[in-house]
Amino acid sequence: MEEMKDTKLPFNRRDFLKATIAGASAATFINVMPGKVFGFQKNLTTKKSTQLKDRLKKNGILIMPGAYDALSAKLIEAAGFESFFHTGYGTSASLLAKPDIGLVSFGEMCSRVKEIADAVNIPLIADGDTGYGNAINVFRTVQEYIKAGAAGMFIEDQVWPKRCGHMNGKEVIERGEMVGKIRAAIDAKNALDPDFIIGARTDAIYVEGIDKAIDRAKAYEDAGADFIFLDAYENKKQMEKAIKEIKAPLLLNIIEGGKTSPISAKEAESMGFKMIIFPLATLYAATKAMQIVLKILKDTGSADNYKDHIVEFKEFVKLIGLPEIMEMEKKYIPEEKLIKKYKQT
Question: What is the pLDDT of residues 179-221, one digit of tens each?
């Protein structure tokens, strides 16, 4: 066994305490400090919010899959994506096994954002639903999402309880109320992290039609939104109209089987979109894979019959960081305890 060596934290404990008292989470603080912390973080000298803001200034569309938990986020990072999208729909499905109809509370959603942000080194845009109340609630929601480690978020103009943008039965609040929410969101982020990205989503296409939805989007842009998210386009003509009339960066949401016909990232970029999200591809793929494996197991009663459909133990524990944990044990746990623990001679 290798000789154990002392290790030093790559930040001053006093500074860490100050950051904690000021309201910054450990994950947020680590993101701006150099060095490898607790065996999991890479060398991050730039905040995740700054990374995302800088990326959006560059050419090229940003492709973002959706994560519904820490593991799905880890897989997205391992696949090489620059950034990703936290899905409230996926959170409701994975946390409650219920549809996205406003059943997940603010506290539950914020906790999920933190779990996801802590698991990866790439920036995420979080689903803020309606902000969980009026403009005052939005102010707190934004600041709590920043503390949780998100690099950006969006809020939408639906009436609470809201529902998935590709479901029927949606209602929207008055445009002026949403403008106030966006202004509160901008003030909230400027107080803690000016680089934090604020997006404004409108669900008005379904309720009021594309023209009024674009009018809303323009008002939200004027209120300070960093990007605009018109959800559930019904055809490409609506997309082209929005791109022509809205100056802010536009996000396109593609849900398999949803209201918007699927288009590729390449086509979306050629049309003028800056971001394209596939928020449910991971959730739907995982669901299908589990259905297949469970049927094989039920029909055959054997694990050997589905090995080709899954990752196995050694690959999985490597993915979730067991080798790094074992290296940490060598640094921090007395050698004699490790010898006894692993029965080494």
Answer: 999 999 999 999 999 999 999 999 999 999 999 999 999 999 9
Q: 277 to each of 9, 63, 96, 287, how far by Cα in Å?
A: 37, 6, 23, 19
Element (H, E) at 290: helix 281-300
Q: Is 5 in a helix, a strand, or coil? A: coil
Phi then psi dihedrals of residue 67, to 5 deg: -115, 135
Residue type, 265: A
Distance spanning both ends of the chain, measured CA to CA: 10
Most distant CA pair in the chain: distance in Å? Answer: 75
Q: What confidence tier does 304 reach under pLDDT thresholds 50, 70, 90?
A: confident
Distance CA 249, CA 95 (A): 32
Residue pair 112/105 in contact by the 8 Å Cβ criterion:
no
Model pTM score: 0.86
Output helix, strand, coil percentages for the chain, rounded to the nearest 5.
Answer: 50, 10, 40
In the chain, where are the structural domains located? 47-279
Residue with tokens 């200034």: 57
Whole-number Cα distances in Å, 154 to 29, 229, 313: 22, 8, 37
CA distances, 330 to each of 6, 324, 340 (Å): 10, 10, 13
The DSSP 8-state label assigned to residue 4 in this structure reads P
| CATH code that applies to domain 47-279 | 3.20.20.60
Two structure tokens written together for 75: 């897989």
Question: Which amino acid would we find at residue 343?
Answer: K
| pLDDT above 90 for 100 | yes
Spell out a b/e string for 241-255, using b for 16 or more CB atoms within 10 Å of the CB, else e: bbbeebebbbbbbbb
